[in-house]
């Protein structure tokens, strides 16, 4: 099945998937009903397939990384709300593809208990738009965004993640 086909028989239900050795992944319930209405349905990737891409992006991480992830949920929203973008300093001409919210593993101490899970949000629509209809680009962007946001969960800064991403891409080429 081509990822870029419209899934005309999509049921409209949020499809949460929980892979082994990975955080819980699913749709943000607040947006699930609105996001699946016919007027807002993505023309690029069916929602359940996009969710599968996010799950696969987590599954390809090294086992030691997946096992080290603690108290974190990954959710998918169609697009960021402007209020959320403005709260974190995203300008109108910039694009938010993912967002990490929580206490990084490096910031947790013996007093860390009973906390709600950290939240990694992957924004489907901006990823699809940037992919410009390319199935390969959708897959690559999902993996990059998931990898980047999980880096924040481990306490890495944008600069540190950028350095590691360059090393990873260099290794993938060779």
Percentage of helical residues?
40-55%
Q: How far apart are the first and last residues' alpha carbons, in Å?
A: 30 Å
Unreliably modeled segments: 1-22, 29-42
Strand order of the largest sheet: 1-2-4-3
The number of distinct β-strands equals 4
Shape: globular
* Annotation field: number of helices: 7
Query: What kind of assembly state do the chains in view correspond to?
Result: single chain
In terms of DSSP E residues, the strand content is: 5-15%
Rg, Å, rounded: 16 Å
Structural class: alpha/beta
Largest sheet: 4 strands, mixed
> What's the mean pLDDT score?
78
Reading the helices and strands in chain order gives EHHHEHEEHHH
Topology:
Layout: E1 24-27, H1 29-35, H2 47-59, H3 63-68, E2 72-77, H4 82-87, E3 98-101, E4 118-123, H5 124-131, H6 135-153, H7 158-173
Parallel strand pairs: 1-2, 2-4
Antiparallel strand pairs: 3-4
List the main descriptive attributes of the protein structure presented here:
174 residues; four-stranded mixed beta sheet
Description:
The chain is an alpha/beta fold. Helix 2 (47-59) crosses helix 6, helix 5 crosses helix 6 (135-153) and helix 6 crosses helix 7. 43% of the residues lie in helices and 11% in strands. The protein has helices spanning 29-35, 47-59, 63-68, 82-87, 124-131, 135-153, 158-173; strands at 24-27, 72-77, 98-101, 118-123. It has a four-stranded mixed beta sheet.
């Amino acid at each position: 099945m081509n990822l870029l086909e419209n899934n005309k028989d999509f049921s409209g239900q949020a499809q949460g998937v929980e892979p082994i050795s990975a955080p819980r992944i699913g749709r943000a319930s607040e947006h699930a009903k609105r996001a699946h209405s016919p007027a807002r349905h993505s023309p690029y990737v069916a929602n359940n397939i996009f969710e599968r891409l996010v799950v696969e992006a987590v599954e390809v991480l090294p086992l030691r990384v997946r096992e080290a992830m603690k108290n974190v949920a990954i959710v998918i929203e169609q697009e960021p709300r402007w209020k959320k973008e403005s709260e974190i300093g995203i300008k109108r001409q910039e694009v938010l593809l993912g967002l990490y919210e929580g206490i990084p593993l490096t910031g947790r101490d013996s007093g860390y208990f009973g906390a709600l899970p950290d939240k990694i949000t992957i924004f489907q629509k901006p990823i699809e738009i940037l992919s410009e209809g390319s199935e390969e680009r959708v897959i690559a962007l999902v993996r990059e965004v998931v990898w980047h946001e999980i880096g924040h969960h481990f306490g890495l800064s944008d600069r540190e993640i950028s350095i590691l991403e360059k090393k990873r891409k260099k290794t993938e080429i060779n």
